[in-house]
Write a structure and sequence with these properties.
By secondary structure, this protein is an alpha+beta fold. It is built from 11 helices and 15 strands. One of its GO terms (molecular function) is ATP binding.
Length: 371
């Protein structure tokens, strides 16, 4: 056993505590902007505190929780050195899973692991998370930044988050409410959102395309298109669910697995949704990925959202009211299909029955995409 005259400190091992403290100071204002009267204490405590006294007014409050990350989209943010938008991707992936059951996302926490704490970069990430939380109406009550030298490169990081929401049991949305004759409404995505980037990055790498490449179909660079923030639907969905004339029975958040698989998760056995592809046109980014990588349509459909980020299932009589309310809120939406009695199962990519461990209803894709 040998020793050295040079002392080993935490800083020499690669962890800069002072940089972490500076990052907290830079992000404090953005985090505080998400706080409401229910948030107790400030930034920097061991635990975030949230006053849930309002739940005393509920007859049977149900807590909903979700956790997620952003996936390999962070590689695009790192390559472009733009870090203030990835927070929208994180928040969207988490709170929009909660709102599917009709729950209001109350508060969220985040976790950032990095190879080296660069205060300005960490603050940019958290500012993006905070800005998205404001859009969702969710308080950002805490978080953690961990420096992992030797495990992550100096410019590498990953992000994750978790949120908790609440819904009155009588207002819980899900398969039990969906009925024969319901209408399926699609809400436009802002782009790729945060799923399928392993496929997308493989396609552009094999094609030799650079992130700085100007793409006429996008009207901007490839990198800017790939970094387009996820649309956060939580506040829009909650507003729609509270609109009695809309008759909302359920939502489906279109993430990993694509439209059909995620829609099938919120349908009861014995019913199927028929979704007509001709009711919308594929946005340019999805066309590009398919053509550039010679990716089969079936693979695109089970990997990417293809222009649909959230789906609402509503009573047929409420479809017009639902579309009008979404238009008022600036969310492009359209009727994309209907729910009916399940027909005969079919083999092939156009038919999905049950998904992600849920033995539920089925989705049948018909027609060809417009344009």
């Amino acid at each position: 056993m040998s020793s050295s005259d040079t002392a080993i400190t935490y800083a020499s091992a690669g962890v800069d505590v002072e940089a972490g403290d500076k990052a907290v100071e830079l992000m404090k204002a953005a985090v505080k902007a998400t706080h409401n009267s229910s948030v107790l204490g400030g930034v920097g405590g061991f635990a975030g505190l949230y006053d849930v006294s309002r739940l005393l007014t509920y007859k049977k409050p149900l807590l909903a929780t979700s956790t997620d990350g952003v996936g390999t989209k962070v590689a695009i943010a790192q390559a472009m050195d733009i870090h203030d938008t990835i927070g929208f991707d994180l928040v969207g992936m988490v709170v929009d899973d909660i709102v599917v059951v009709g729950a209001e996302p109350l508060f969220m926490t985040d976790y950032i692991a990095c190879g080296k704490v660069v205060p300005e970069r960490i603050a940019d990430i958290v500012r993006g998370i905070a800005a998205a939380c404001e859009v969702a109406g969710t308080a950002l009550v805490g978080g953690e930044t961990a420096e992992h030298p030797g495990l992550l490169g100096e410019h590498e990081y990953d992000v994750a988050g978790a949120a908790t929401g609440v819904v009155e049991a009588a207002n819980l949305l899900g398969p039990e409410r969906v009925r024969d004759g319901d209408v399926v409404i699609g809400m436009a995505s802002s782009g790729l959102h945060s799923n399928g980037y392993s496929l997308v990055r493989s396609v552009i790498n094999r094609a030799g395309w650079q992130l700085e490449r100007q793409v006429s179909e996008f009207g901007r660079t490839l990198g800017e298109e790939l970094l387009e923030p996820t649309r956060v639907y939580a506040a829009d969905c909650l507003d729609l669910a509270r609109l009695e004339t809309a008759g909302v029975h359920g939502f489906s958040h279109v993430t990993g697995g694509g439209l059909a698989a995620n829609l099938a998760r919120v349908l009861p056995k014995g019913l199927e949704a028929t979704v007509d592809r001709s009711t919308w046109e594929l946005p340019p980014i999805f066309k590009l990925v398919g053509e550039l990588g010679n990716v089969p349509q079936s693979d695109l459909e089970r990997t990417l959202n293809l222009g649909v980020g959230m789906v609402a299932i509503v009573d047929a009589a409420g479809a017009d009211a639902a579309l009008a309310r979404l238009a008022e809120r600036g969310v492009p939406a359209w009727v994309m299909g209907t729910v009916g009695a399940a027909g005969p199962a079919q083999a092939g990519p156009d038919y999905v029955q049950g998904a992600k461990g849920v033995d539920g209803g089925a989705v049948r894709l018909v027609g060809n995409y417009a344009g």
